[in-house]
Amino acid sequence: MNVLFAIFVCLLFFSISSFIEHRRMKKIALGRGQANICEYARSFNYRVVDTKIMREVWNEVQLLLGKFGGEPFPIKADDKFEETYRIHPDDIDDIYWDVADRLGIETGNVEVNPYFEQVATVKDLVLFLDAQPRKVSKGLFK
Q1: Which residues pair with 100 in a beta bridge?
Q2: Which residue has the higher pLDDT, 21 or 81?
Q3: pLDDT, tens digit, for every residue of 47-86?
Q4: For the stretch 12-26, what's the b/e string if a residue is b when 16 or more beta carbons lie within 10 angstroms of its beta carbon?
Q5: What is the pLDDT of the chain when averaged over all its residues?
Q6: Range with the lowest mean pLDDT among 8-17, 47-56, 98-107?
Q7: Which residues pair with 121 in a beta bridge?
Q8: Strands 71-72 and 67-68: what pairing?
Q9: Hey, CA dihedral for 19, 23, 24, 26, is it positive or negative?
Q10: Residue 139 pLDDT > 60, yes or no?
Q11: How far is Cα 110 from Cα 131, in angstroms, rounded to an integer?
Q12: Which range is least confidently modeled, 22-26, 77-81, 98-102?
């Protein structure tokens, strides 16, 4: 009986905390209005930073955050992963790996990257990925 009560309390706590978190994110989303990738892109020096990386990080973060009020979450480049989104560092790693694999970005030797262990915002992740070397593709012809 005590075990069932403990499980019930845990489920209740999880449900309430999820509801509160959803309302917090919805409030942020509704306060910002519609998602605007142009505004997001202007936060970068798009003549220097690879726009494909900017777009893929935008897509992956939106996919992770979901929709609020039927609209994708309006991401800002300066949003902090842990403070604003409350995204676990493992989820940030997943975004990194997905974008790197999709765009042919090297994932090794990250210690020499100037943004190593400094990724706190969406912009930091884009700049980190942009600073990584690209994989050399081997074509059909030599």
Answers
A1: none
A2: 81
A3: 899 999 999 999 999 999 988 878 888 999 999 999 999 9
A4: eeeeeeeeeeeeebe
A5: 89
A6: 8-17
A7: 80
A8: antiparallel
A9: positive
A10: no
A11: 9
A12: 22-26
- Give the whole-angstrom CA distance, residue 98 versus residue 60: 8
Kindly state the tokens that stand for 40.
């997001």
The residue behind tokens 């081997």 is 138
* Amino acid identity, position 121: T
Block residue for tokens 């505004």: 39
Query: pLDDT value at position 19?
Result: 85
Look up residue 28 and give its amino acid. Answer: I
Instruction: Write the secondary structure of the chain as one string of H (helix), E (strand) and C (coil).
Output: CHHHHHHHHHHHHHHHHHHHHHHHHHHHHHHHCCCCHHHHHCCCCCCCCCHHHHHHHHHHHHHHHCEECCEECCCCCCCEHHHHHCCCHHHHHHHHHHHHHHHCECCCCHHHCCCCCCCCEHHHHHHHHHHCCECCCCCCCC
Q: How many residues does the chain have?
A: 142
Report how far apart, in Å, the C-alpha atoms of 97 and of each of 8, 25, 57, 125 are: 37, 25, 11, 11
